[in-house]
Specification:
Structural class: mainly beta
Helix content: under 10%
Order of helices and strands: EEEEEEH
């Protein structure tokens, strides 16, 4: 089966290169960006301004190939790909939760952006804590390293 997606817009950020950028939104606090939603999809923005945060699904457009046991940014040993958030994946789909600041026509102003400039946007979903924040969470190998994400930057290992 072949699956194809078409972008609904483009994400703009201050990050022109995939190195030396935040690796998660919590490491991008205060970083501002915009989303340009293509004209054909702008009607779908109705009622979105009532939400403070968005889930963005996007295409890692600079990612080529993948390794099933990469060494993640926050670790020094290989981990199973699906136990990481490495950008090189069999399907190059990224996910970020960002703050929505305002909507003007088809332009969304967002904050806490950890996304490369020019990234194709696949979908927008409203972040709803009652749906998106599960209880009794375990975070595997991340438990000992998650606090480092706020100051850790990407390097060239996933280019």
């Amino acid at each position: 089966m072949k699956i194809e997606y078409s972008p609904i817009g483009t994400i703009h950020s201050p990050f022109a290169q995939p190195t030396d950028m935040p690796i998660q939104p919590t490491g991008a606090l205060g970083v501002q960006g915009t989303i340009e939603v293509f004209e054909a999809f702008r009607e779908g923005l109705k009622d979105l301004d009532g939400f403070s945060h968005l889930i963005l699904l996007y295409h890692f457009h600079h990612s080529r190939g993948f390794d099933l046991q990469p060494v993640p940014f926050l670790d020094r040993e290989p981990r199973g790909l699906f136990a990481t958030r490495a950008p090189k994946r069999p399907n190059s789909i990224g996910l970020s939760v960002v703050r929505l600041d305002k909507i003007e026509g088809g332009l969304l102003s967002i904050t806490n952006v950890d996304i490369l400039d020019g990234t194709p946007l696949l979908d927008i979903k409203p972040y709803v804590p009652a749906f998106d924040t599960p209880r009794d969470v375990r975070t595997g190998w991340f438990e000992n390293v998650a606090s480092a994400v706020s100051h850790h930057r990407s390097d060239d290992r996933f280019q």
